[in-house]
Amino acid sequence: MIPYLVYFVQFHEDFRIQELEALAKLENVKIKFNREDYSNENPFFIVELESDEDAKRLIRRSILIKHIIQLWTSGNDYPEVYKNLKSFDPEKYKPYETSTFKFMVETYNGTRTMKEQVDIINTFSFLPFTGSIDLKKPDNTFMVLEKYPAPTEPPCKIYMGKLVGSGDRQLVAKYDLKKRKYLGTTSMDAELSLIMSNMALVRQNSLVLDPFVGTGSFLITCSHYGAFTLGSDIDGRQIRGKGKTSIATNIEQYNMKKKVLGTIVSDMAHHPWRNNGELFDAIVTDPPYGVRAGAKKIGLNTDKYDAPPPTKRDAMNPRYPLTVPYEMEQVLIDLIEFASKYLVVGGRLVYWLPTNSEEYNKNDIPQHPSLKLIANSEQSFGKWSRRLITMEKVKKYEDIRLTGEGNTGHYQFRQFYFYGKDGEQKQENNKKEQPKDELESEKVKKSKHE
Amino acid sequence: MRLITHNMLQCHVKGCTKDNFPLKLEEIEIEELEAEFNADFIKSMLNRLDWKALAQTTFSLGIAQLPEEMPEELSDEMLEQLHHILLEIDITSGRMVCQGCNHVYPIRNGIPNMLLTESEV
Ligand SMILES: C[S@@+](CC[C@H](N)C(=O)[O-])C[C@H]1O[C@@H](n2cnc3c(N)ncnc32)[C@H](O)[C@@H]1O
Ligand SMILES: [Zn+2]
């Protein structure tokens, strides 16, 4: 196998290697790496692959990888890099000798002026390349990547190699919420929606459901990758919109009528999906947890039903889906059970889970005997986080309830989050600390990274 | 609502377990859409479809006369017909009625409302 250097973006760190692994599976690329070498603080990561074609394919859909480079050498300073390059068998350079080329210098955590970059490039003139330089469409692009311990210090690591492929970050701008016609308070930003589609292994002809579809962010990104998509929401006004725009407007905006199959109004707690078979390749969703969605319950008179909500399994006390709170724990149980039944084997469930940073414990992640936990990526907002959970269906549905720990963890989470440790209701006070909606969360993220 | 979706929806009124599928389409308006033909997608849907229900629904709508059982071998022609049935027929309004309990699920702007009333869950 051949070593390649993966050059990640330096944010959403906790999603990067997870996306890489998902893409390796999606693209059926054989990859080897040492997880211990990976660090959230470092944008460079060395992997082993079988070919340049594989490398290219591996990251062509990546949102969190900038480039992949066939790694020729690395060193702690330039003399070491030159020495290594000079020690190679001349045969290595043969394929490149007469082709057109270009050199690029990339820096991480430091900067180089144009002049400095040119000077660095010139130091590589000992390489036996006789082809002409072509900045627009070179046959080969060689890259020098510098990593700095601090902007004021010299680089501590230098990599040199041949660029073989790039990620697809331009999609983040293409599906930017700022340009989207129909938005809601919890529309998911384009970058995370795209990452979710990758985590879900969404591909050409997948059938994907978002059971809490809202304004349809995931329909758009999943259909971008060629999936046929369906959405449902208890709130028809989310789907139809209030003014002139609706999910249909977005579908039109992105020209996806051929791929987005439609939406239905339905309650996840009492859903109408035919229950005699596996239907979906993926479920990609952002469930309505009290944290954000609680504020926008459907406008019926809830005072009438202020008694504790009867549970679904209590046959004598049917619940009223439009007017009772949908407890977080129950949302999760319903979602997980739904996925374990309705996903095809090998299909994936990708969803968000808010957790209280202080109290978080990995047992808070629900488990199910037919679903395997694939990834758990944290996006932190200080006191609370949301985690992107990826699960894969590994066994046909078995009618086993969720394991105890998961439930307990979430029950505790809900208690602390809304009521404080003493059980006293603190919902009103807590509200101020929580981002009101996705757009605001987006700002938090932006200011942190840019 | 496309017919592929219709083929996946059942009546879920509490206690309604007999004749709750397929839902009968009534007083519907249909719009024909154009979708890219994709044989692989149709093939991958075959074992997820309820064939009998599809045959019954398309027959009663006068759209197609499918064999009662799913044929073992599907000709290209048949795949194209299925593609048209499943993806290109869009029901923009009307209602779906449960043959078991008579619950009516209205369809408005192409969006079926599958919510139940308080006494039905
Ligand atoms: C966090 S939002 C999803 C936002 C969506 N990802 C988007 O991009 O717009 C959660 C959605 O769940 C819906 N919802 C709440 N309770 C529900 C239920 N019982 N069944 C189905 N949908 C429900 C809400 O109406 C809301 O649109
Ligand atoms: Zn019924």
UniProtKB/TrEMBL annotation, chain A:
<dbReference type="GO" id="GO:0005737">
    <property type="term" value="C:cytoplasm"/>
</dbReference>
<dbReference type="InterPro" id="IPR000241">
    <property type="entry name" value="RlmKL-like_Mtase"/>
</dbReference>
<keyword id="KW-0808">Transferase</keyword>
<dbReference type="GO" id="GO:0000049">
    <property type="term" value="F:tRNA binding"/>
</dbReference>
<dbReference type="GO" id="GO:0008033">
    <property type="term" value="P:tRNA processing"/>
</dbReference>
<feature type="domain" description="tRNA (guanine(10)-N(2))-methyltransferase TRMT11 N-terminal">
    <location>
        <begin position="4"/>
        <end position="169"/>
    </location>
</feature>
<dbReference type="InterPro" id="IPR002052">
    <property type="entry name" value="DNA_methylase_N6_adenine_CS"/>
</dbReference>
<protein>
    <recommendedName>
        <fullName>tRNA (guanine(10)-N(2))-methyltransferase</fullName>
        <ecNumber>2.1.1.214</ecNumber>
    </recommendedName>
</protein>
<keyword id="KW-0949">S-adenosyl-L-methionine</keyword>
<dbReference type="InterPro" id="IPR029063">
    <property type="entry name" value="SAM-dependent_MTases_sf"/>
</dbReference>
<feature type="domain" description="Ribosomal RNA large subunit methyltransferase K/L-like methyltransferase">
    <location>
        <begin position="179"/>
        <end position="297"/>
    </location>
</feature>
<keyword id="KW-0489">Methyltransferase</keyword>
<dbReference type="GO" id="GO:0043527">
    <property type="term" value="C:tRNA methyltransferase complex"/>
</dbReference>
<feature type="region of interest" description="Disordered">
    <location>
        <begin position="424"/>
        <end position="450"/>
    </location>
</feature>
<dbReference type="InterPro" id="IPR059073">
    <property type="entry name" value="TRMT11_N"/>
</dbReference>
<keyword id="KW-0963">Cytoplasm</keyword>
<dbReference type="GO" id="GO:0160102">
    <property type="term" value="F:tRNA (guanine(10)-N2)-methyltransferase activity"/>
</dbReference>
<dbReference type="InterPro" id="IPR016691">
    <property type="entry name" value="TRMT11"/>
</dbReference>
<dbReference type="Pfam" id="PF25904">
    <property type="entry name" value="Tmrp11_N"/>
</dbReference>
<keyword id="KW-0819">tRNA processing</keyword>
<dbReference type="Pfam" id="PF01170">
    <property type="entry name" value="UPF0020"/>
</dbReference>
<comment type="similarity">
    <text>Belongs to the class I-like SAM-binding methyltransferase superfamily. TRM11 methyltransferase family.</text>
</comment>
From TrEMBL, chain B:
<dbReference type="InterPro" id="IPR039127">
    <property type="entry name" value="Trm112"/>
</dbReference>
<dbReference type="GO" id="GO:0030490">
    <property type="term" value="P:maturation of SSU-rRNA"/>
</dbReference>
<protein>
    <submittedName>
        <fullName>Trm112p-domain-containing protein</fullName>
    </submittedName>
</protein>
<dbReference type="GO" id="GO:0030488">
    <property type="term" value="P:tRNA methylation"/>
</dbReference>
<dbReference type="GO" id="GO:0002098">
    <property type="term" value="P:tRNA wobble uridine modification"/>
</dbReference>
<dbReference type="GO" id="GO:0070476">
    <property type="term" value="P:rRNA (guanine-N7)-methylation"/>
</dbReference>
<dbReference type="Pfam" id="PF03966">
    <property type="entry name" value="Trm112p"/>
</dbReference>
<dbReference type="GO" id="GO:0008276">
    <property type="term" value="F:protein methyltransferase activity"/>
</dbReference>
<comment type="subunit">
    <text>Interacts with TRM9.</text>
</comment>
<dbReference type="InterPro" id="IPR005651">
    <property type="entry name" value="Trm112-like"/>
</dbReference>
<dbReference type="GO" id="GO:0035657">
    <property type="term" value="C:eRF1 methyltransferase complex"/>
</dbReference>
<dbReference type="GO" id="GO:0016435">
    <property type="term" value="F:rRNA (guanine) methyltransferase activity"/>
</dbReference>
<comment type="similarity">
    <text>Belongs to the TRM112 family.</text>
</comment>
<dbReference type="GO" id="GO:0160102">
    <property type="term" value="F:tRNA (guanine(10)-N2)-methyltransferase activity"/>
</dbReference>
<dbReference type="GO" id="GO:0000470">
    <property type="term" value="P:maturation of LSU-rRNA"/>
</dbReference>
<dbReference type="GO" id="GO:0043528">
    <property type="term" value="C:tRNA (m2G10) methyltransferase complex"/>
</dbReference>
<dbReference type="GO" id="GO:0046982">
    <property type="term" value="F:protein heterodimerization activity"/>
</dbReference>
